[in-house]
Design goal:
Length: 104
């Protein structure tokens, strides 16, 4: 498993509610993306982003190509930073599980 953390400054003056509306508009793009398990949108003090859980690093890297970067530029006015993390253990309280994964 791979976790990708995306971060970017939001346009000045964009409220949490406005940001949530933008996010809701982009959310359908992530339904049925190959290799994507989960995406969480983030908002804090003028910064936005997302936390994505991927099956593999290759799936994550395939998603963040030139078209994705261009879309982010159009929506937010900046190119987001992307950090990848190997995710060897996941605690899922909703499912009542602790799962270990080989390197992704």
């Amino acid at each position: 498993m791979i976790t990708a953390i995306i971060s970017f400054p939001l346009p000045a003056g964009l409220t949490r509610e406005q940001t949530a509306a933008v996010y809701a508009g982009t959310a359908p793009r992530y339904v049925n993306v190959p290799g994507l398990i989960r995406k969480q949108y983030l908002y804090a003090d003028g910064r936005g982003g997302g936390v994505y859980l991927w099956e593999t690093r290759a799936a994550a890297e395939a998603a963040y190509g030139p078209a994705w970067c261009q879309l982010a530029l159009e929506i937010y006015g900046v190119e987001p930073s992307v950090q990848y993390f190997d995710t060897p253990v996941i605690v899922d309280n909703a499912a009542g599980s602790i799962d270990a994964y080989p390197p992704g």
